[in-house]
Amino acid sequence: MLNNKSINHNTLKLMAEHNETGIKGEELAATFLKNKGYLILETNWRFKHLEADIIATIDKTLVVAEVKTRKSNYFGEPETFVNKQKQKNLIKTANEYIIRNNLDLEVRLDVISVILGNNQMKINHIEDAFLSSH
User: What domain range includes position 57?
Assistant: First the structure.
């Protein structure tokens, strides 16, 4: 449990900026996909404690995408922060979405990395991000 001393004003400010950056990145990623012809079905779809940032379709493929947004790539490209546990969680979330909506589509798990910093924006869309060749 947090007490009044555990989080100072600067920490709260950084947390708020981080959340704003993430939300902006997800909005930009959704627009990016729409412009590429994807139909956005859901954003921030939740199942228990899990979440899919974007669920979309293109052709006959259901795409479940994790969006990672950073202000720079100083510590590495944003997509490198999608760890094995996040991959497993995304798979569980995709499976639940398919079951709940009784879908019969091919499924692809993508990562969209967004860098938003000092007047720059870079989006990298990695299709089939968790295949062993990546």
Answer: 47-134
E strand or H helix at 93? helix 84-100
Which CATH number is 128's domain given? 3.40.1350.10
> Over the stretch 37-89, which tens digit does the pLDDT of each residue have?
999 999 999 989 999 999 999 999 999 999 988 876 656 666 766 778 888 99
Report pLDDT digits (tens) over 19-47. Answer: 677 788 899 999 999 999 999 999 999 98
* Non-local CB neighbours of 52 within 8 Å, separated by 6+ positions: 42, 44, 45, 64, 65, 66, 90, 93, 94, 97
Residue 61 dihedral angles phi and psi, to the nearest 5°: -125, 130
SS3 73: coil
Q: Is the pLDDT of residue 108 over 60?
A: yes
How far is 109 from 56, CA to CA, in rounded Å? 11
